[in-house]
Write a structure and sequence with these properties.
Strand content of chain B: under 5%
Shape of chain A: globular
Distance between the termini of chain A: 73 Å
Largest interface: A-B, 105 and 92 residues
Helix content of chain A: over 70%
Number of helices of chain A: 11
Radius of gyration of chain A: 22 Å
Distance between the termini of chain B: 59 Å
Structural class of chain B: mainly alpha
Helix content of chain B: 40-55%
Shape of chain B: elongated
Oligomer: heterodimer
Largest sheet of chain B: none
Chain lengths: 297, 252
């Protein structure tokens, strides 16, 4: 046995980096808590029944689903490792398929929700007076139904036809397209905001400060999106492009870290999108602190 | 590309006395399909270990079961002739990503310092379409003659009506000043819309500073982070700059 390990356990091998299950659990729980909070707040507060908050709620729902399925997978892995579950049983594999398709669905859904939020903000800014005609609640609901139906089907298709290279390429192209479109929309909005600031000629100092804040906000928003999503997609690309290359092999060994990044994006999302709204924050305050009615005013 | 499933435990448990199973049957593990295409590098067909194939006696100690996984291309990944560091793809990817984000930040900051590309159009518009004789009475926003200056454009007046109705629906109980500001913004936008019809193209040189009335700001821009991106929620009034700077001070 030692001879064989001497041959195979080479020092230059890239062993898969294992992340303990506790970290997966923690991140999944935190993400679940935050996103459920956002969903409940949007549903309970009538003021938040507008297209913008519907899209934010949809994003939070997709993140909730991904956290739930990750938690479920963790639990099943724990049971498998302790021997209570047969990792090759048919029912276990079916459940695993369901979880994978839920994960795929929530990932694609997150991307589409980001896109919907960006488009909604774009329409808000560039077609402000016609916003209520363009983005009615009916249309928002139709858009959301279409997104959910498409993501559900795509999740199932991706898991069933996973070995098909074309499907994975579609997934990656979709991601790149969404990235470019989101970048374009936000940069255009930023240009308008900066143009705005130039109209306020009286305070050049604070104008510059606010412009820097705008640039920082945009960079954070986009940077976090890229940093959390692209390692995973590069992994998919590398599987297809260079499965035998040792360098690619070492990149693939970090798969669990990339999944952690994806999950942590579900944790950061509410902070970037939902918690910045004053109305949502006041809804949270009312939900938590309103045991005593004096605190609500 | 074939995707046979394998067990990550194979990879991790080399050297341990444990049951090593790597069969062609699928197995449940963490997101199995995405990692398993690679971790059979340790097993290449053609290398035989007959001694370890079976332990025939049950309960006689560790039980090794070898099965072979086959890929379309049979060459194992060799780590022997690496010229660069083995994590160079990883490092290169993250360094590239960081550089891209920093570059984007610098581009955005630079954009704040240079002039906007459509500044000249905006100035041209201001020169051409400045209303000289058409002033709106801001103190009485509900008065119908406020619309006298604008051309009878049905969609713009609809927008104005929607603007005012929305103000009441959201039940904003701000001060009188606040409502006055809102109404002024609605009227200003309507007026500017009317002016836009007269000569200038609507899209490029539209006075976008009036294109973001407060009703949008109050409800939607807070989702953008308390005016991080929308830096001006004030109208540029037709009369003086001091009024706009006043309002800017009040809200910032």
């Amino acid at each position: 046995m030692e001879n064989i390990t001497g041959v195979y356990a080479n020092e230059t091998d890239c062993r898969e980096v294992q992340i303990p299950n506790e970290i997966f659990f923690t991140i999944a729980m935190v993400s679940l808590g935050e996103n459920l909070l956002v969903v409940v707040a949007v549903i309970r507060n009538k003021n938040l029944h507008s297209p913008m908050y519907c899209f934010i709620c949809s994003l939070a729902l997709f993140n909730t689903i991904s956290s739930l399925s990750k938690t479920w997978e963790n639990i099943m892995l724990v049971f498998t490792n302790t021997g209570h579950l047969n990792s090759r049983g048919d029912s276990v594999l079916k459940v695993d398929d369901v979880m994978d398709s839920l994960l795929c669905m929530s990932f694609i859904g997150s991307i589409f929700s980001f896109l919907a939020i960006a488009v909604d903000r774009y329409v808000t800014i560039f077609h402000a007076l016609r916003y209520h005609n363009i983005m009615t609640m009916k249309r928002a609901k139709a858009i959301l139904s279409a997104i959910w139906a498409f993501c559900g089907c795509t999740g199932v298709v991706m898991v069933v036809f996973f070995h098909n290279v074309a499907i994975m390429m579609c997934f990656i192209i979709l991601f790149v397209f969404a990235l470019v479109l989101i970048l374009f929309l936000y940069v255009h909005m930023f240009l308008l905001a900066r143009h705005h600031a130039r109209k306020i000629a009286s305070l050049p100092g604070s104008t510059k400060h606010h412009n820097l804040r705008g640039a920082l906000t945009l960079t954070i928003l986009f940077g976090v999106f890229i940093a959390c999503w692209s390692p995973f997609f590069l992994h998919l690309l590398i599987i297809m492009v260079c499965p035998q290359n040792p360098y690619c092999e070492c990149y693939r060994s970090l798969f669990q870290i990339h999944v952690i990044l994806l999950m942590s994006h579900a944790v950061i999302d509410p902070a970037i999108y939902a918690f910045r709204s004053a109305e949502l924050r006041s809804t949270f305050r009312k939900m938590f602190l309103c045991s005593d009615s004096r605190l609500c005013h | 590309m074939k995707t046979k499933q394998c067990s990550a435990e194979v990879f991790a448990s080399f050297g341990q006395a444990a049951e090593i199973n790597c069969s062609s049957k699928p197995e449940f593990q963490r997101s199995r399909q995405l990692i398993c295409s690679s971790f059979l590098v340790q097993k290449s067909p053609g290398i035989e270990m007959p001694k370890f194939q079976n332990s025939s006696k049950p309960g006689s100690g560790p039980h090794y079961v070898w099965e072979y996984e086959y890929y379309d291309d049979d060459e194992p990944v060799s780590f022997d002739n690496l010229t660069a560091h083995r994590y160079s793809v990883v490092i290169g990817f993250w360094v590239g990503l960081a550089l891209f984000v920093i570059f984007m930040f610098f581009v955005l900051t630079l954009l704040t310092k240079t002039g906007p590309p459509h500044q000249e159009n905006q100035d041209a518009f201001d020169r051409h379409c400045r209303p000289s004789s058409c002033m709106v009475d801001f103190r009485h926003p509900q008065a119908s003659d406020n619309k006298a200056c604008s051309q009878p454009l049905l969609d713009e007046s609809h927008s104005l009506i929607h603007c005012f109705i929305h103000e009441e629906e959201t039940g904003r109980t701000g001060e009188g000043q606040g409502q006055w500001r809102e109404a002024k913004q609605c009227a200003c936008s309507g007026l500017q819309q009317a002016q836009a019809k007269c000569k200038v193209e609507r899209d490029t040189s539209f006075p976008t500073h009036c294109n973001i009335p407060n009703f949008v700001n109050s409800e939607y821009s807070s989702a953008l982070g308390d005016d991080d991106l929308l830096l001006c929620d004030q109208p540029v009034p037709l009369d003086s700059n001091s009024l706009s700077s006043n309002n800017y001070h009040r809200t910032m």
